[in-house]
Amino acid sequence: MVKLISLSIFLLLLHLQISSSKITLSLSPLSSSNESRNRGLRATEQGEREGLLLFKTKTEHAISVKVGQPPRTLSLVVDTGSAQVAVPLEGCNCSPSCECGQQVALSALQEIQCENNTLCSKKMCSASRPSLCGFRVSYGDSSAISGVLVSGLIQLGKISINATFGGLFQISSRFASAGADGVLGLAPGGPNISCAPNCVKPFYDLLVERTSIRNIFSINMTTNGNGTLTLGGIEEGIPVSSIVYSPLVSNQFYMLTLQKLMIGDISLNSAPLEATVDSGTTYLMLTSGLWEALKSSLLNNFTLPRAVELFQPSNGNCLLDNGTIAIDKYPNLKLALAGVQIELTPQQYFVRLSRNGLLYRCFTILALPPTQKHIILGGSVFSAYYTIFDRENKRIGFAGKRNSIPAQVPTEPPSESSGPSDGQKAAVGIIVILLAAIIIGGAVYLFLQHRASSTSYKRISASAQTQILYD
Questions:
Q1: b/e map of 150-187 (b: 16 or more CB within 10 Å)?
Q2: What's this model's pTM, rounded to 2 decimal places?
């Protein structure tokens, strides 16, 4: 009888999987059945590919990484805007009034002495540990981290490599506010980004050099916290024909050329700008001049409910969602990159936030400090598009997501061989439901027969199913 119940549950789950397969590009928490597909190390013609589960911290997307020997599991923000790994060490301080999170014992790693070392000199020793090689990084959001250079084992899924990276003794409260323990930098690197202040090989360069992982990775990020980071390739299920590419214009950052930024049909810039694709930045960040032009255009060229209220400084670009915002009346934002046009709908550049039991709609296009002369394509773009970092061919690819409002990226429909048709899915679904009903009916009959003759039974509930075990 237990086997019958298990089989009926399996058939029902199979039906649910078939019914939802028409949105296979959308993400959901990985179950044990698809974990081997999404997380296992697989051989391809060109090399290996490793899929890692992304999860949402307070403000960023992170993955679980094991560091040191014996290993300690940490959550590291996936950051394409920096090139190094950095993790907190035991004794780490966070100021003011914050915590460093999970920490690694220095004894689980190898110290790098400051003197007589090719990596650093006396001028680059750690301020907190003068005998050790120093490490410090300042980020564009004014957060900062510092400590020492260390070397040790880093495990991402089934991939393990020895690397040199930052061990942190000091982090700022802004860095800690992301809710992760440390950072996994995936940028190409160079003197301005790989030297902190001591120059070490960028982490992904090292990964490609020491494993059979290809020099390409992709990110599938969602606003609800799910996602994947695929090392060495493109996530399964994304039709290659749907990807459009824009060439990189920098060897140090994932930087593209933004030719035109438009709100509706109104152009906001008179000359091309550089745009950095940065998964470690939560929102779409514009130069101060572009942001002022965007705000002015929304206020003066469109009739938008509560727009004046939205941009009042005291509201922090958020509105109480009382049913009068009418997000769909806001225009689309169009970004014409070299070779690619991507587009964000208002449903994608507004997000829902809950504060003290109240629901707000918040504008996720923000202004950079006046000194910044390039824009940052952050989480607002990643949530709307699959993003492929094709380092081999020096380009960034974008593919629209089926589970979001349609994005204006040129795409081709998947081939017929990509999956069953909707009619086939419906037919199979009906058959599965009928079989499940028959089996469940039989199971209930056997259960009642057995209960009449049994003296006791024990029910154990799991998150996905209910099993009945007999004493």
A1: bbbbbbbbebeeebbbbbbbbbbeebbbbebbbbbbbb
A2: 0.74
Q: How many CA atoms lie within 13 A of 386 on its CB side?
A: 28
pLDDT digits (tens, 9 = 90+) for 237-260: 888 889 999 999 998 899 999 999
- The Cβ of residue 458 has, within 10 Å, a number of other Cβ atoms equal to 9
Q: Encode 292-302: b = buried (16+ Cβ within 10 Å), e = exposed.
A: ebbbebbeeee
pLDDT tens by residue, 220-232: 988 676 799 999 9
Burial of 439 (0-12, 13-18, 19+ CB in 10 A): buried
Cβ neighbours around 367 below 10 Å, total: 17
The H-assigned helical ranges of 258-393 are 288-300, 307-310, 346-349, 379-382
Residue 251 CA to its chain's centroid (Å): 23
Cα(215)–Cα(207) distance, integer angstroms? 9
What is the C-alpha to C-alpha distance for residues 345 and 144, in angstroms, rounded to an integer? 33
Angle, CA 137 vertex, CA 134 and CA 142 arms, to 5°? 145
338 Cβ contact list (under 8 Å, min separation 6): 246, 247, 256, 257, 259
Q: Read off φ and ψ for residue 228, nearest 5 degrees.
A: -145, 150
Give the pLDDT score at 72: 96
Q: What is the pLDDT of residues 419-471, one digit of tens each?
A: 344 444 444 455 545 555 555 555 444 443 433 333 322 222 222 222 222 22
The amino acid occupying position 127 is: A
